[in-house]
Design a protein that fits this description.
Length: about 230
């Protein structure tokens, strides 16, 4: 399960991270110390822990923006203030935890949230709507996506579509079976046939660049994908 922890208090971030690792050691956790950095990353997550009272952008503001690109992620607010509980319903928060965190309660909510994330993932539509062409494309048919400035090429098993779009937005919409191996490429891990230190080969022979500094991260992500139900062409 992909989890984000967003809090400007590093002590709280570490506490949450440690509790998650204790209960779900197979989770992939990313920590952000501001709402701005969390949104700028544009990564897809199954579960997000979000502080409300942060410097700069508040957690509630970040949640509203996040919901625009990831409406089905499970969102849990972690805060020291009770008065935002009703407002949390406006962004479909799953739970509202108060600081200081109590371990038993935290783990109980984590297990409930994990089950909900699995339910949402299994029920998630496997098609992506291309507004520019007013049509849908099956996610399972997409080999990779290539950035071309303000446009992107969506390479599928049958054809290639060119649309106006953002790589960050598409990465968030497509979910964990796709990996951003380079700023200009997003690959479907189901179609990887081979990879090296600086490139990935896909079904059909197409090759895409793999940023060398991301090689280690990619290998971990790909191994995790294979070990957790992914089916590869390798």
């Amino acid at each position: 399960m992909y989890i984000a922890v967003v809090d400007d208090e590093t002590v709280i971030c570490e506490q949450i991270k440690n509790l998650i690792q204790k209960a779900r050691p197979d989770s992939r956790i990313t920590v952000y110390t501001s709402g701005q950095s969390f949104l700028a990353a544009g990564k897809p997550f199954d579960l997000v822990y979000l502080d409300i009272q942060m410097e700069g952008m508040t957690g509630m503001e970040a949640a509203r923006e996040f919901r625009k690109v990831q409406p089905d992620a499970v969102l849990i607010f972690v805060t020291g203030a009770k008065e935002y509980a009703l407002e949390a319903f406006d962004v479909s928060a799953f739970h509202y935890l108060l600081k200081p965190l109590e371990e038993t309660k935290f783990i109980q909510v984590l297990e409930q949230a994990g089950a909900e994330a699995e339910r949402r993932r299994s029920g998630r539509k496997e098609r992506i709507f291309l507004r520019a062409r007013n049509k849908t494309v099956a996610q399972s048919d997409i080999l990779y996506i290539e950035s071309r400035g303000k446009k992107v090429d969506i390479h599928t098993l049958k054809e290639t579509f060119t649309i106006y779009g953002s790589m960050n937005e598409l990465e968030a919409r497509l979910g964990g079976s796709f990996y951003r191996c380079h700023r200009g490429y997003l690959v479907n891990m189901a179609y990887i046939t081979e990879y090296g230190p600086d490139r990935i080969t896909l079904t059909g022979g197409d090759e895409v660049y793999l940023t060398r500094k991301k090689h280690g991260e990619f290998v971990k992500a790909y191994m995790w994908y294979l070990q957790n139900g992914g089916v590869s062409s390798v």
